[in-house]
Amino acid sequence: MKYAVIGNPIAHSLSPIMHNANFDALNIPSSYEAINIPEDQFHLIKKIIDEKALSGFNVTIPHKENILPYLDEIDEQSKTVGAVNTVKIVNDKWIGYNTDGMGYVTGLKQVYPDLENAYILILGAGGASKGIANELVKHVHSKLTIANRTLQRFENWDLDVNQITLKEAEKALDEFDIVINTTPAGMHENKEVVINLDNLDSRTLVSDIVYVPFKTPILEIAEAKGNPIHNGLDMFVYQGAESFKIWTNELPQIQIMKEAVLKHL
Ligand code: ATR
């Protein structure tokens, strides 16, 4: 079987390394490649994928929404989030899933097992935030709090969460057990931190969905304050693991997938 990830840019994606390591470990004679599809070529997606005879593929930036019109079916999570990161092809039928939220929460549970009793603050209210919030509500007793620069972003949210501004979150920071940054601030060369951490309780876990850099500025600051931190590597590994399960109905070798990625970071 053949699989791939589509995106743009995609050359530096670690998905092929991660999935091929897993196929090798399980002796599955499948392969996984990266396919670059620029925005202006996206209308050719059916042709590109058909020619490669793929059984499934992952979708990453900037195509997680672009893919929607090409799907024959879409699962509930993808519908709510409005984005798809996994497509399974069955008899030429394209079925869309979104494993990002579940991937994140599965990873978070490893480092914070008592998740159901946690008070959680999510920074950012975009697609990534929505996917994670949508999954977290299934695991957590108390209402989630989502903070964004402006409250307009919440207009298309129908999840029952507390909606506050980043400024309000700054003042109330000591009330939370876990703070999750889902904004792209801190990614790559961007050294921005979206919130002042002065009011952070010393036990609060600070988590980021980014893993390049391995420690985003918000994690650097939290770590310097002595707080536990958690980056986006687990999310990446578990979203891939969930995609693999959807495609094959088999159990992935999580540790091998993670080590393969770590080796190349
Ligand atoms: P994604 O799918 O990665 O979540 P998105 O849907 O574009 O991307 O959402 C990005 C989120 O990060 C938004 O909540 C955005 O806040 P605004 O609604 O105020 O734009 C937030 N964000 C991006 N850059 C930010 C920054 N420099 N400071 C604070 N929030 C930021």
UniProtKB/TrEMBL annotation:
<feature type="binding site">
    <location>
        <position position="76"/>
    </location>
    <ligand>
        <name>NADP(+)</name>
    </ligand>
</feature>
<comment type="similarity">
    <text>Belongs to the shikimate dehydrogenase family.</text>
</comment>
<feature type="binding site">
    <location>
        <position position="232"/>
    </location>
    <ligand>
        <name>NADP(+)</name>
    </ligand>
</feature>
<keyword id="KW-0028">Amino-acid biosynthesis</keyword>
<dbReference type="InterPro" id="IPR046346">
    <property type="entry name" value="Aminoacid_DH-like_N_sf"/>
</dbReference>
<comment type="function">
    <text>Involved in the biosynthesis of the chorismate, which leads to the biosynthesis of aromatic amino acids. Catalyzes the reversible NADPH linked reduction of 3-dehydroshikimate (DHSA) to yield shikimate (SA).</text>
</comment>
<feature type="domain" description="SDH C-terminal">
    <location>
        <begin position="232"/>
        <end position="262"/>
    </location>
</feature>
<feature type="binding site">
    <location>
        <begin position="148"/>
        <end position="153"/>
    </location>
    <ligand>
        <name>NADP(+)</name>
    </ligand>
</feature>
<feature type="binding site">
    <location>
        <position position="211"/>
    </location>
    <ligand>
        <name>shikimate</name>
    </ligand>
</feature>
<dbReference type="Pfam" id="PF01488">
    <property type="entry name" value="Shikimate_DH"/>
</dbReference>
<feature type="binding site">
    <location>
        <position position="209"/>
    </location>
    <ligand>
        <name>NADP(+)</name>
    </ligand>
</feature>
<feature type="binding site">
    <location>
        <position position="239"/>
    </location>
    <ligand>
        <name>shikimate</name>
    </ligand>
</feature>
<feature type="binding site">
    <location>
        <position position="100"/>
    </location>
    <ligand>
        <name>shikimate</name>
    </ligand>
</feature>
<dbReference type="GO" id="GO:0005829">
    <property type="term" value="C:cytosol"/>
</dbReference>
<dbReference type="InterPro" id="IPR013708">
    <property type="entry name" value="Shikimate_DH-bd_N"/>
</dbReference>
<dbReference type="GO" id="GO:0009423">
    <property type="term" value="P:chorismate biosynthetic process"/>
</dbReference>
<dbReference type="GO" id="GO:0008652">
    <property type="term" value="P:amino acid biosynthetic process"/>
</dbReference>
<feature type="binding site">
    <location>
        <begin position="13"/>
        <end position="15"/>
    </location>
    <ligand>
        <name>shikimate</name>
    </ligand>
</feature>
<protein>
    <recommendedName>
        <fullName>Shikimate dehydrogenase (NADP(+))</fullName>
        <ecNumber>1.1.1.25</ecNumber>
    </recommendedName>
</protein>
<dbReference type="Pfam" id="PF18317">
    <property type="entry name" value="SDH_C"/>
</dbReference>
<keyword id="KW-0521">NADP</keyword>
<dbReference type="InterPro" id="IPR011342">
    <property type="entry name" value="Shikimate_DH"/>
</dbReference>
<feature type="active site" description="Proton acceptor">
    <location>
        <position position="64"/>
    </location>
</feature>
<dbReference type="Pfam" id="PF08501">
    <property type="entry name" value="Shikimate_dh_N"/>
</dbReference>
<comment type="pathway">
    <text>Metabolic intermediate biosynthesis; chorismate biosynthesis; chorismate from D-erythrose 4-phosphate and phosphoenolpyruvate: step 4/7.</text>
</comment>
<dbReference type="InterPro" id="IPR006151">
    <property type="entry name" value="Shikm_DH/Glu-tRNA_Rdtase"/>
</dbReference>
<dbReference type="GO" id="GO:0009073">
    <property type="term" value="P:aromatic amino acid family biosynthetic process"/>
</dbReference>
<dbReference type="InterPro" id="IPR036291">
    <property type="entry name" value="NAD(P)-bd_dom_sf"/>
</dbReference>
<dbReference type="GO" id="GO:0050661">
    <property type="term" value="F:NADP binding"/>
</dbReference>
<keyword id="KW-0057">Aromatic amino acid biosynthesis</keyword>
<dbReference type="GO" id="GO:0004764">
    <property type="term" value="F:shikimate 3-dehydrogenase (NADP+) activity"/>
</dbReference>
<feature type="binding site">
    <location>
        <begin position="124"/>
        <end position="128"/>
    </location>
    <ligand>
        <name>NADP(+)</name>
    </ligand>
</feature>
<dbReference type="InterPro" id="IPR022893">
    <property type="entry name" value="Shikimate_DH_fam"/>
</dbReference>
<comment type="subunit">
    <text>Homodimer.</text>
</comment>
<keyword id="KW-0560">Oxidoreductase</keyword>
<feature type="domain" description="Shikimate dehydrogenase substrate binding N-terminal">
    <location>
        <begin position="5"/>
        <end position="87"/>
    </location>
</feature>
<feature type="binding site">
    <location>
        <position position="85"/>
    </location>
    <ligand>
        <name>shikimate</name>
    </ligand>
</feature>
<dbReference type="GO" id="GO:0019632">
    <property type="term" value="P:shikimate metabolic process"/>
</dbReference>
<feature type="binding site">
    <location>
        <position position="60"/>
    </location>
    <ligand>
        <name>shikimate</name>
    </ligand>
</feature>
<feature type="domain" description="Quinate/shikimate 5-dehydrogenase/glutamyl-tRNA reductase">
    <location>
        <begin position="109"/>
        <end position="186"/>
    </location>
</feature>
<dbReference type="InterPro" id="IPR041121">
    <property type="entry name" value="SDH_C"/>
</dbReference>
